[in-house]
Design goal:
The protein is of the alpha+beta class. The protein has three domains: 107 residues, Ku70, Chain: A, Domain 2; 26 residues, no CATH class; 63 residues, no CATH class. The protein is 27% helix and 29% strand. The protein contains five helices and eleven strands. Strand 5 and strand 6 form a beta hairpin. Helix 3 runs parallel beside helix 5. It is extended.
């Protein structure tokens, strides 16, 4: 079943316009949601706003939005005032510049969407996709939708265009805020670490090899609950508490991966 478009937009660069459809690049399967129930009767609870000053429940129609500019001091905005500040939703992806794709740091990426050509836009779509692929560049621009203005990056991906929603610079914490104590890397340890990397190297990215085992475990537990089964846990945490020397850990890791590779080779021969 083909994916359903979640929005329409137009890519604009120079005098060229490319009508496109937006598709979500992900499935909403990452987490299992639980509802809050009353322990006494298992009735689903409702959220309410309460005013600690007046000691009363406040309905949504009695609320306003306020920005705290100082401790316990707010400036209040009406819905109309906030609406007036919204960006006009033009549905236009305005390309401002083209940048080398490898120069875009991955910490700026927030969300990813797929773009497909809309009616009459397939020729210009293919042209832009191929031009980006051959030049190794990506299109950087801004997208106005749903009252906001988003920084986006368009890049070629397996014959289609992907649109990455980026964070603005002031939304990304600089890496230098993370402190690393000064020290040296010992050549012998570095050699072992590089050897371990080479033993575990894979020249292709294969995310399909990995599954969210926690999510699967939760879903299985839910099903057992539904079927009236008792839930028991057979996962035992490692409580040895033994801390290996870095060199010992590297050597042990190499030995373990070597044994694994030898076992795989033995099964293939047999």
């Amino acid at each position: 079943m083909p994916p359903r478009s979640i929005a329409n937009a137009t890519i604009s660069f120079g005098l060229v316009s490319v009508p496109v459809n937006l598709y979500s690049s992900s499935e909403s399967k990452s987490s299992v949601s639980f509802n809050m129930l009353h322990r006494k009767c298992n009735t689903r609870l409702k959220q309410q706003y309460t005013c600690p000053k007046d000691n009363e429940i406040v309905g949504r129609d009695e609320t306003v939005k306020g920005y705290e500019f100082a401790k316990d001091q707010y400036v209040v905005f009406t819905a109309e005032e906030l609406k007036a500040l919204d960006e006009k939703a033009t549905g236009m992806i305005e390309v401002v510049e083209f940048v080398p794709l490898e120069k875009v740091d991955r910490e700026y990426v927030d969300k990813v969407y797929y773009l497909g050509p809309d009616k009459g836009g397939d020729r210009a779509y293919r042209l832009l996709c191929e031009a980006l692929r051959e030049t190794g560049r990506a299109a950087l621009g801004q997208y106005a939708a749903r009252g906001g203005q988003t920084l986006v990056l368009l890049r070629p991906l397996n014959g289609i265009l992907a649109m990455e929603q980026l964070k603005y610079a002031d939304e990304v914490r600089p890496p230098h805020e993370v402190t690393v104590p000064p020290g040296e890397v010992k050549p012998a340890e570095l050699a072992l670490a590089k050897q371990l990397i080479e033993q575990l190297v894979n020249e292709t990215f294969e995310p399909q090899k990995y599954k969210d085992t926690v999510r699967e475990r939760v879903l299985e537990a839910i099903q057992r609950k539904v079927e009236g089964q008792d839930i028991t846990s057979d996962v035992q945490p490692d409580s040895s508490g033994k801390i290996l020397d870095l060199m010992e850990a590297l050597k042990a890791s190499l030995a373990k991966t070597t044994k694994t590779e030898e076992a795989k080779a033995g099964r293939m021969v047999s």
